[in-house]
Design brief:
The protein folds into two domains: about 200 residues, 2-enoyl-CoA Hydratase, Chain A, domain 1; about 50 residues. It is globular and about 70 Å long. It is α/β, with parallel strands linked by helices. Helix 6 packs across helix 7.
Length: about 260
């Protein structure tokens, strides 16, 4: 089983729930073991065909505060050093997160239980879906600290809300509350605190019940659809469909439909 240092994981009904457990630092991704926890969970899920959905959420007051401000003020930290040193610390540190989440084969749902700030906001944007508490907020606040979104946030945010709105949110660093998040399509739902986890889990169950192999292939196609030319993309569609038609999941689905008609 997984050995996580700063998180908890629960697996039930083909749904893995990763809960950050560093409320003492508001689930900051740096100055903790959360980066390695995320990497380990992603690799575990890709090898475990009995998992069809991943939920990422936070325990305590925040989803994630992103970068650890106290860590930034230290002389010897993941943020200190000459240009070349800091570059390497980012490449082999927090940038592991977008790379590994991009490769997760199952749908990923961010359940934003509290503020998602900076890299915490970007982490939510890396997921396939977002459901937030009505008491939570987002903020792409790097500019207020005199730094840029070094974890790849400028890549993900504009793909959700478009370039102009992403630029406005990034250049101002302001907070986005639940109604605006809904209007922008940043989140699927905004839910009261007391019902957040249960309602998010219900949504996850709908997806987790779908044919597992088909789910993974469909996610791969959705990811590929945004980067491949149409002709090459259709080649992969044909290949994946050939696999799907010959898979037991397709035969089982047809049998169920036939039995319903009877």
């Amino acid at each position: 089983m997984l050995n996580l240092k700063d998180s908890k994981i629960k697996i039930k009904n083909k749904i893995a729930t990763l809960m950050f457990n560093r409320d003492d630092i508001r689930n900051a991704l740096t100055g903790s073991n959360l980066i390695e926890d995320i990497v380990n969970v992603a690799e575990y899920i890709n090898k475990n065909k009995n998992i069809s959905m991943l939920i990422i959420t936070g325990n305590g007051s925040a989803f994630s505060s992103g970068g650890n401000l106290k860590e930034m003020q230290k002389k010897n930290s993941s943020f200190s050093g000459k240009v070349e040193e800091v570059e390497k610390k980012y490449r082999y540190g927090i940038q592991k997160i977008p790379k590994v989440i991009d490769k997760i084969e199952v749908p990923v749902l961010a359940v934003v239980n509290g503020p998602a700030i900076g890299a915490g906001f970007d982490l939510a944007c890396m997921c396939d879906f977002r459901i937030m508490s009505k008491n939570a907020f987002f903020a792409e606040n790097f500019i207020n600290l005199g730094i840029i979104p070094g974890d790849g946030g400028a890549f993900f945010l504009q793909r959700i809300v478009g370039y102009q709105k992403a630029a406005e949110l990034t250049f101002t660093g302001r907070k986005i509350y639940y109604q605006e998040a809904l209007d922008l399509g940043l989140v699927l739902k905004a839910i009261d605190d007391d019902k957040l986890q249960s309602e998010a889990y219900k949504f996850a169950q709908i997806i987790a019940k779908k044919p597992a192999n088909t789910l993974r292939y469909t996610k791969r196609l959705l990811k590929m659809g945004s980067i491949l030319p149409l002709s090459e993309f259709l080649d992969f569609c044909a290949l994946f469909q050939g696999i799907s038609h010959n898979h037991i999941e397709h035969k089982t689905a047809l049998k169920k439909i036939k039995n319903k008609k009877k």
